[in-house]
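Exercise 7.
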Amino acid sequence: MPLPVLRFILETRYRVAALLIALSLGLALLTRIVLLVAQQTFFASAGSVSPGGAAMLRTLAAGEVYDLLAALWLAVPLLLYLTVLPERRFQGRIQRGFLHAWIGVAIFTMLFIGVVEGFFFEEFNGRFNFVAVDYLMFPTEVVDNIWQSYPTGWVVATLLLLSIGAVFLLRKPLRAAWQRPTRVMQRFGVLLVYAVVLAGLTLAVSPRLARVSEDRALNEIATNGYYSFWMALLGSDAPYEGMYATRDRATIDRRLSQLLAEPAAGAISFANGSAERRIRPLGPERRMNVVVVLEESLGSEFIGVLHPRPVSVTPQFDALTQEGTLLTRAYSTGNRTIRAIEATTSSLPPLPGISIVRRPQSKDLFTLPELLRSRGYQTLWVYGGRALFDGMGNYLTHNGVDRVVQQSDYPDGTFTTAWGVDDQAIFDRALTEMDTMAATGKPFYSLVLSVTNHRPFTFPEGRIPVVEGFHRRENAVRYADYALGRFIRQAKEHAFFKDTLFVLMGDHGARVYGAAEIPLASYEVPILFYAPGVIPAGRRIDTLTSSLDLPPTILGVLGMGYDSKFFGHDVFHVDPGAGRALMTHNNKIALLRGSRIAVLSLHQSTSLYDLGPDYAMRPVATPDAEGKELIEDAIAYYNGADSIYRSGAYAFQVRKPPESVARR
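Solution. The predicted structure, written as tokens, is:
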């Protein structure tokens, strides 16, 4: 900032904002020093080698940059207020009292957040991250936990007294703010310079600046809690290491070599940092079209042939199972649609934190649409809502999808809810687009995402008779099922049908949360492979299946040979005993195999459960050899996938991993 402007700020009303920024910088520096001392104490008690003085200095230097950026943003509301406040009102006694109160509240807030950061770092060995963001979704539990775990009342009272004392001591420094009047043009000049400096600093700073050493905790200390929290909100921060159980890379590689083995797979090479292996075709190659339909919230509980009820709410889907092959023990990887998109395109395990669909670095990944596009396929996504929601459109267009149909592409007057147009409109548009692609003579891949089976559970009148006594959701499921059945019936009349593989599945369950750490019943989804004459009719496959198995299974049906990085199996050819499901729930990640489930939690903790009737989870206090193996397999899946993804090795075109994340 130019020196004359800085002098002007310190001699006028902007002195109030300058003092606030200085206090913010001082408290942030104090917090960082306290965390460094605490970390040094940890190193000493653990007998570990402490990072050198150079790393400490880099930590402090990088931290000051983050602190300045955070302080400037925190001062924006006050700066705007000081700019628009007329001189006559600024000089009044009421305004003086108000601004002193503003400073007091700001000091209390910064002190409180500093204390919370200390407790958070003690608990999670990191700055505010996706855990803090997730906690905001459960305020009742979080507040109760904090109140019972810490002397909250005493802490708040102490911070309140310190804030009052600080305002009392700042009376004299603040007095100078009222000595020199400021004209309107001068005030807006200050605002303009401030905005330029803030914009430049914001664009210059990135999470990479905090990588000051190979020690994760030290890198955490180097950043700033406000900045980390904001990055977590944007989905840029979802660390695995430091929060979940880890193993060395050699151990992970050995386990992944066993876990990803299947009849069609060759030896796995980790030379490029990924679990790459050659998949040879086990049958004739078919240049078939591929249509994947993700049905919103269609859990297996609704499917009549899987969970019979007096009156089925899915008669169309039930009938289609007699013409295709149904996977009867399939599970979604998460309870959000973006988890289904992630799994069914990338075949990656559900990494902790936010889905890779919302992470800005998720570009040019090894995905099913990218692979098919490289083989000459046209690629399409048909959706009834806005493509920007949850970053779905951005993810798909950067990972193999050429064309997107979204809400704005439908005619005015189409029945619409908060989530988009109704399912019939979506399927009708999908058929039109598929006809256009088929006319080119090239095969196509199309992902179709429905929206109706979602609150508020409304749909066009007159399409199906509403069943009295059914819940609104049940009638919405019936309409969604009707629209799906109608889509398949109409598709049969189109020329492309005989050359098309349809995969009809639920994206996740109906979000029925239970007491279990992993509410498995709400993760059950139906997956139906449908292609008359190609896929066996009426077949049931009971192999334990995850939605991330979809890409390799589809490619297996196509008889396609390829170099794979996928974590999924070809369910039609894998040994039934090798079936497993991977899933995430809140901050838990899990591996289900047989009648046991291994759960990885924060603080590097691991748990093992036996499954009883209705998915009751009975904890195993002392895991046997088989249980320990399951836990180690879970660590290998998630630790390995996170490392591969973060290093850039999951790219469709292999990139050399950055030096900082190279294999150990």
